């Protein structure tokens, strides 16, 4: 956070003594713990008003449902329709600049473990090595293939 915003943030939380400690790595954990405790004293909506009025940088942590309905995300085409086994489902797109986003058809992410064979084919593992990893639980619970 830029120093001017850090100063406004600290003042909004009524802790101006933190202002000179912004770059003091030895204080970060203690300050973060105090901030977490302070944030629990009010609702998210109350903090949004306080931080907005302070003119500092902040962003609320949204649930997936809130993020899907968020005006900012919708205005930036972050809600996309993805193909999932022939069904069109809404999902959040990648938060990259427009020039870095892939255009075209979106698809849902693969099921966990469904691409394991492809990934493992690029490693120098024997079939026995893969079986031992599977038995050890490296891919989920021991003895499960993890692709169900």
Give a structural overview.
By secondary structure, the chain is mostly helical. The chain folds into 3 domains: 3-54, no CATH class; 64-107, no CATH class; 110-148, no CATH class. Helix content is 42%, strand content 9%. It has a 3-stranded mixed beta sheet. The protein is flat. The mean pLDDT is 85.
Proportion of helical residues: 40-55%
Which strand order do you get reading across the main beta sheet? Answer: 2-1-3
* Oligomer state of the chains in this structure: single chain
Low-confidence segments, given as residue ranges, are: none
Structural class: mainly alpha
The total count of helices amounts to 7
Distance between the termini: 44 Å
> How many domains, in number, for the residues?
3
How do the SSEs run, as a string of H and E?
Answer: HHHHHEEEHH
Mean pLDDT: 85
Rg estimate, integer Å: 23 Å
Overall geometry: flat
Instruction: Estimate the strand proportion.
Output: 5-15%
Instruction: Summarize the biggest pleated sheet.
Output: 3 strands, mixed
How many β-strand runs?
A: 3
Name some characteristics of this structure.
flat, three-stranded mixed sheet
Task: Characterize this entry briefly.
The chain contains seven helices and three strands. The protein has 148 residues and is mainly alpha-helical. The protein has three domains: 3-54, no CATH class; 64-107, no CATH class; 110-148, no CATH class.
């Amino acid at each position: 956070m830029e120093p001017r915003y850090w100063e406004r943030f600290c003042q909004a939380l009524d802790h101006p003594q933190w202002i000179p400690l912004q770059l003091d790595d030895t204080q970060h954990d203690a300050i973060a713990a105090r901030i977490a405790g302070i944030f629990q004293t009010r609702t998210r909506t109350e903090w949004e008003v306080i931080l907005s009025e302070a003119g500092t940088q902040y962003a609320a942590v949204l649930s997936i449902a809130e993020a899907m309905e968020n005006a900012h995300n919708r205005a930036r085409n972050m809600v996309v329709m993805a193909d999932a086994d022939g069904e069109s489902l809404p999902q959040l797109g990648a938060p990259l600049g427009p020039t870095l986003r892939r255009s075209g058809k979106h698809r849902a992410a693969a099921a966990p473990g469904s691409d394991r064979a492809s990934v493992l084919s690029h490693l120098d593992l024997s079939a026995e090595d893969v079986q031992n990893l599977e038995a050890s639980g490296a891919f989920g619970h021991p003895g499960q293939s993890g692709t169900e």
